[in-house]
Design brief:
Blueprint: H1 2-16, E1 25-28, H2 49-53, E2 62-66, E3 70-72, E4 75-77, E5 87-92, E6 100-102, E7 111-114, E8 119-122, E9 125-128, E10 137-145, E11 149-151, E12 153-156, E13 159-164, E14 174-182, E15 189-191, E16 194-196, E17 199-204, E18 206-211, E19 222-223, E20 226-228, E21 231-233, E22 240-241, E23 243-246, E24 249-251, E25 254-256, E26 267-268, E27 274-277, E28 280-282, E29 285-287, E30 293-294, E31 298-300, E32 304-305, E33 308-310, E34 313-315, E35 322-325, E36 337-338, E37 341-343, E38 346-348, E39 366-369, E40 373-378, E41 381-384, E42 395-400, E43 407-412, E44 415-418, E45 422-425, E46 433-435, E47 438-440, E48 443-444, H3 453-464, H4 471-475, E49 478-483, E50 486-491, H5 493-501
Parallel strand pairs: 1-2, 2-5, 3-6, 4-7, 5-8, 6-9, 7-10, 8-12, 9-13, 10-14, 11-15, 12-16, 13-17, 14-18, 16-20, 17-21, 18-22, 19-23, 20-24, 21-25, 23-27, 24-28, 25-29, 26-30, 28-33, 29-34, 31-35, 32-36, 33-37, 34-38, 35-39, 37-40, 38-41, 39-42, 40-43, 41-44, 42-45, 43-46, 44-47, 45-48
Antiparallel strand pairs: 49-50
Length: 504
């Protein structure tokens, strides 16, 4: 009697709240389930993903997949939850092994979330491996097209692995996660999309990338995106690339150990925005990037305004620490690259590209390309170790042409250490300002002549005496956390600020 009253009371509450029926929880079991079952309990679970397609999800509904099971095929799903009653895709059962959704040979995606609101997908594994590489193949596709605003999509604790897309960007590439927004009849975008605690492993070409409105004449950016606490491992191309976004926060992510398998035509880098405003990239680590061109840890790319790159750690990449670039021939869809700030980052042992690329042996620690404007590079530490061979580039900064040259760039209180003779090359860039930078080593074309013996002695005592390669000494300025059983290093703001205050 009490149970009946309780069910009646709960049901009544949902009717009062505007729900036609109480939320349902549906179970899937690939081994013991049956699509003729009700799906409403673990003992009456459905068997296949096809059965989910026939279900119209209501606010508050859950789809639970049994741990340790493999569900072959495609999960293509739409759900409109609310702030208090989100729709959730999750795991159930004993053990730690995530349920796996495995795409078929021809699938462009294994999971798609389409035109949804207040939707969480978490604690699953997704793979999408075909017999051959397929251009545009992805693991998870999140799409908002001719819909309006899609609110609060959360992607949490997914393992996305073994997606064999194309290695060539112009063919369409491939990705672990693809975020798409657009539409001709109804302009559409995401608001408060979050990607966190995910592990993206062996995905080709890229880890996570967006596709949206990039034209400034038709600007409708995604808002308030958060990408945090993710590990990107053994991905050869781009790591995290928001496109057509405003106010994106990218923090506490690790990209590591990229395989050297991209064709020689390809450029890629770790974490970078394109056609974005007000992006913050902080507390991240990128190491072992091996793209034939670029291969920096971080990048502020063109059609971007007010990109902030701070407290990041870049090391042992074929390219340098950072690229700041703008195409002078992009046309009126682009605003250029304005107001980038790169501060309090540390680079150790970057710029070790062992083979020729588009411009020969080219891998400066900082590359400024094209007519970027009003850039500030401040209080970074560039520690360039001995290069692996005599032919490797040893340039600290190159500021060169991409249909134009940089203007109004300020380099303030940075530390440049070179274990062997290095150089600076500002080519035809204009109105470069240099303020109190520290140069330790031998350099050609120094932009400033004064030597700061106090700073040199301080750096020798605090860093070089600990270890000539810089790792031990500079790690004292870092903190670390565990992310997906990996160790992520990032710069401690209070430590690096105190370090510079001791010098200046």
């Amino acid at each position: 009697m009490h149970t009946i009253k309780k069910v009646f009371f709960i049901t009544s509450l949902f009717f009062i709240a505007g729900c036609s029926t109480p939320p349902q929880t549906y179970y899937l079991d690939a081994t013991n389930g049956n699509d003729t079952n009700s799906g409403l309990s673990a003992d009456n679970a459905w068997k296949t993903l096809e059965r989910v397609k026939k279900t119209s999800l209501q606010k508050g509904d859950k789809i639970l997949l049994k741990r340790g099971e493999v569900f072959n095929g495609i999960l293509d799903i739409t759900g409109k939850g609310t702030y208090t009653h989100p729709i959730i895709i999750d795991a159930y059962g004993e053990g730690n092994q995530k349920p796996c959704i495995a795409g078929n040979d021809t699938s462009m995606y294994a999971v798609r979330i389409f035109n949804s609101d207040y939707f969480t997908i978490q604690n699953l594994e997704i793979s999408n491996t075909g017999k051959e590489r397929k251009a545009g193949r992805t693991g998870l596709k999140v799409e908002c097209t001719n819909y309006g605003i899609s609110h609060n999509i959360r992607i949490n604790n997914l393992t996305i692995r073994d997606v064999n897309g194309s290695l060539v960007k112009e063919e369409g590439g491939g990705s672990g996660i693809l975020i798409v927004n657009g539409g001709d009849s109804i302009r559409s975008r995401f608001d408060s999309l979050t990607i966190e605690n995910c592990h993206i492993l062996r995905c080709e070409r890229n880890a996570m990338i967006w596709s949206g409105y990039y034209d400034r004449k038709n600007w409708y950016p995604n808002k308030h995106t958060i990408v945090r606490n993710n590990v990107i491992e053994k991905v050869p191309g781009d790591g995290i690339v928001p496109i057509g976004c405003d106010s994106t926060l990218i923090e506490y992510n690790l990209m590591c150990d990229s395989p050297d398998i991209l064709p020689m035509t390809e450029a890629a880098a770790g974490i970078w925005p394109w056609s974005c405003d007000n992006t913050i990239i902080q507390y991240n680590e990128v190491w072992g990037h091996k793209a034939p061109w670029d291969a920096q840890g971080f990048d502020s790319d063109y059609n971007c305004q007010n990109t902030l790159i701070q407290y990041n750690y870049s090391h042992d990449n074929y390219g340098g620490m950072v690229l700041i670039c703008n195409s002078g021939n992009a046309g009126d869809y682009s605003c250029g690259n304005i107001g980038s700030i790169v501060r309090y980052n540390i680079s150790i042992g970057d710029g070790i590209r062992p083979k020729e690329t588009r411009q020969g042996m080219f891998s400066p620690s900082i590359h400024i390309a094209g007519p970027v404007k009003q850039t500030l590079v401040e209080r970074n530490i560039i520690h360039a170790n001995l290069k692996p061979s005599d032919i490797v580039d040893r340039t600290m900064i190159t500021s060169d042409s991409w249909d134009g040259y940089a203007d109004s760039t300020c380099f303030r209180q940075n530390i440049y250490y070179a274990a062997e003779p290095s150089r600076f090359d500002f080519t035809s860039s204009t109105r470069n300002a240099f303020e109190e930078n520290i140069y330790i080593g031998q350099f050609k074309n120094l932009p400033e002549s004064p030597k700061n013996k106090k700073a040199e002695n301080f750096y020798t005592e605090k860093v070089l005496k600990e270890s000539a390669d810089g790792y031990k000494g500079l790690h004292c300025l870092m903190d670390s956390i565990k992310v997906k059983e990996h160790t992520l290093h990032y710069i401690k703001p209070e430590a690096i600020k105190a370090f510079f205050q001791s010098i200046f």
